[in-house]
Amino acid sequence: MPILIDIKESAFYKRGTEEGLEKGLEKGLEKKARIACINMLKKGMPIKDIAEILEVSIDYVIQIQNELYEKEATETKRADIISMLEKDISIEDIAVSQTISIEEIVAIKNEIDQ
Length: 114
Hints:
The chain is an all-alpha fold. The protein has helices at about 10-40, 45-55, 60-85, 90-100, 100-114.
């Protein structure tokens, strides 16, 4: 005769569900803090104030600020390369002026051509 067990009443199931909810909540809060931090940085708020408001470390805010600067620099560099390609500047000259490999420029050119 089989024994039927309601798995939802199991302590293992309940603990796993609670832990899963806690981890999901933590991730959601981290994402929310990151988005808020980015928005505040874009508005020019001081790093110290952002850290206090969001209750995060100053290092965390600086890390996000550096990521934003890197992203912006990459986008600017890409726009410059595209502009140079449109002006028919040679790939080799672009590579030298932008300190980037020829392969990366070719990849950007191929993207544009598609």
